[in-house]
């Protein structure tokens, strides 16, 4: 089958813009006129050193990243960061508060879906501090088991002096997002930056705020980016191939983890050490070069389209169209959205298909219609359509047409 016949709605890795892939195929053969392909050239070559700088610079431009923060490139993905965050931030905490007992080193986790839950579990597993669950998104669901909304912020229980506060901006599996899509005027739940307490060791800062942006990075501006101590994302949803992890880290988080270990903190594996990565300009070890190269091309491509404001506008239009079709399906008794209004992800639209055998019929028809990657995550089931940056409005129109056709056929068979 030709790629022009396919609409790739996968949750990641996901589609990339065609002009970029065509350009990247040339770079595989001959990178920057060196006569050597991007996967063959040294990461210490001047051409690749320039690429690394250019990639950081264009990310700074796209997201208005201030000079207070470093931009790092590494490997290990979001799951690697689940561990790296804990180790680096507890090392920082140890340096500032060497005498505290581990039970007084509190890590605040805002759990709004499967990924933040996993991150909290990893923090608990690594130890060195205790995990406080600030809120659990399942608490507001009908059966207490589904992540289907961001709980109202007045129910959150933040610690007074956390070592850090962690949240996931967009929950890819469950389809729950801060400031999510709302079809009513009730408004969406935004991250409550005003609730973040001051950093106990330095009141000029807030307590370190850490955000997993793996599946919404560059899909719209990052609200209050400068108030975050750390933001990370894998490239493989919105900006490039898998392999690359992007970290935006405030400079005061770049600490001497070896000194912290001497005071009793857990040693940080060198390749996970933010200070080491920063000092080496992300070239401490061989970085994910191909993924960085393609990501740079993607970011340049997005710049020609109008950058993040353009992406935000188009992504909002895409989500609006798909949620409207899901709502029509709900009215017809064919679909049920899994996430409540106001918390619905702009990137991952998650819903159920109602009726005996209906989900299997949906998946088979989607396959014939050229739609790919629409099966929900194995842990929650149902349907998930992911509308990342490379998914075009035209492709979304095809998806909506398919959804409407399916609703009509199912509603017809229900009433027959
Ligand atoms: C929100 C979120 N966080 C973390 C991860 C894990 O990322 P990785 O597979 O890059 O380790 C994912 C993966 O899909 C994700 O969607």
Tally of DSSP β-strands: 16
Shape: globular
| CATH C-level label of the largest domain | Alpha Beta
- Topology-level CATH name of the largest domain: Aspartate Aminotransferase, domain 2
**Mean pLDDT figure:** 96
- Which H/E pattern describes the elements? EHHEHEHEEEEEEEEEHHHHEEHEEH
Assess the beta-strand content as a share of residues.
15-25%
* Terminal-residue CA separation: 36 Å
Ions, cofactors and other bound molecules: pyridoxal-5'-phosphate
Write the CATH homologous superfamily of the largest domain: Type I PLP-dependent aspartate aminotransferase-like (Major domain)
Tell me the major beta sheet.
7 strands, mixed
Helicity level? 25-40%
Number of helices: 10
Number of domains: 2
